[in-house]
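Homework help board

Subject: predicted structure for assignment chain

Our instructor gave us this sequence and asked us to write out the predicted structure in token form, then describe one feature. I got the tokens but I'm not sure how to describe them. Can anyone check?
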Amino acid sequence: MDRRGEALHASPSATWHEWADGVREALGPTPRPFLLTRLHEWTYIHTLTTSDHWDPAHLSTASDWLQRRLTQTPGAPAAVLAYLAEHGRTRRVRGAAWRALQG
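My token output:
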């Protein structure tokens, strides 16, 4: 899931939703919570990198993995990185976001 999410995160919405729907279907009627969470996190990354809409409250409660991944994601908006540089959950996230902003 991570390899495809990384490859598709900046894809057009139709491509993204087709992949995400396929993943949900493959997970079956009782998927593992971890897998649903990871799919949700990749969907949030897709939303952040393909639109200007983001919610600081949602980002502040995001998992450490999601916050770290955003600092490594090409196309992550500067506003999101600036927010993480100041309000990231861990020192590692804050530092990585600051370095990503510096280019």
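Reply (TA_rk): Your tokens look well-formed. For the description, you could write something like this. The first helix runs from residue 2 to 8. That's the kind of observation they're looking for.
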